[in-house]
Amino acid sequence: MFKIGEFSRLAQVSARMLRYYDQCGLLHPDRVDHFTGYRLYSAAQLTDLARIVALRDMGFGVEEIAALLPCFGDAAAMGAALRKKERAVRATIADEQTKLERIAAFCGALEKERRDMTYEVKLTSLPAETVLSLRDTLPDYQREGELWHRLCRYMAEVGVACDQGGYSIYHDEEFRDQDVDVEVAVPLAAPVEAPPPYSCHTLPAIPLAAAVEFAGPYDGYAAATQALATWVEENGYRMTGLIRGKAIASPADVPSPADYRTQLQVPVQKLHEHGEKIER
């Protein structure tokens, strides 16, 4: 029998962790001396401890380790458990890789914002436009590209030409993490027949709109939106409708995301100095 310090040296596991495994029920001492209270371990327990450490280092939790220890003689059960853990670890790696990509993109956006901090917001009027559109509920905003692919594929099938850059319209009254209501639309020179789920309709004219352009990948949307909101607030206007994006130069026009150009548009109305709308 070995005292806890001796067993700790043999196993290269701290006495603190041995006490923890005892409290968790993973590895109790072989016996406890009734007179001294010393925990005493046997040489045979080194195998059990090595298995506990191995499973811990693979990412298994205490409850999982407790369930797996009796399975070391069952190759099929151990294999199934290890394959399940492998899938979970790979999923975690993929999630972390996505986070790394987002960090890199955000750093790039910060650098671009540092180089070009000026957004020129303009007041303009927007004419009514005939559009061919596709509107659907998507799992999240990142899936908008799927709508564009469907719409462009349909347009190619029926031979409809796009008059100019398309629109992205977000119909939810507030930001949603999932199940988002998105419409993509392309202007047409003339109306066409469009079977559901496609629609040919007219985007109404907007007598007064605030508009701002930004260049580069679509992750610049947030900074441009902030610039637009700041301008609206500081200049005594209020938003009266949905923000929409208009593609000035899109993936269909230019190969590099650095060359994308997007204009954000939102209908606005002037306020009195006390905050009331001025009717127009």
UniProtKB/TrEMBL annotation:
<dbReference type="InterPro" id="IPR009061">
    <property type="entry name" value="DNA-bd_dom_put_sf"/>
</dbReference>
<dbReference type="InterPro" id="IPR011256">
    <property type="entry name" value="Reg_factor_effector_dom_sf"/>
</dbReference>
<dbReference type="InterPro" id="IPR000551">
    <property type="entry name" value="MerR-type_HTH_dom"/>
</dbReference>
<dbReference type="InterPro" id="IPR047057">
    <property type="entry name" value="MerR_fam"/>
</dbReference>
<dbReference type="InterPro" id="IPR029442">
    <property type="entry name" value="GyrI-like"/>
</dbReference>
<dbReference type="InterPro" id="IPR010499">
    <property type="entry name" value="AraC_E-bd"/>
</dbReference>
<feature type="domain" description="HTH merR-type">
    <location>
        <begin position="1"/>
        <end position="71"/>
    </location>
</feature>
<dbReference type="GO" id="GO:0003700">
    <property type="term" value="F:DNA-binding transcription factor activity"/>
</dbReference>
<dbReference type="Pfam" id="PF13411">
    <property type="entry name" value="MerR_1"/>
</dbReference>
<dbReference type="GO" id="GO:0003677">
    <property type="term" value="F:DNA binding"/>
</dbReference>
<protein>
    <submittedName>
        <fullName>Copper export regulator</fullName>
    </submittedName>
</protein>
<dbReference type="Pfam" id="PF06445">
    <property type="entry name" value="GyrI-like"/>
</dbReference>
<keyword id="KW-0238">DNA-binding</keyword>
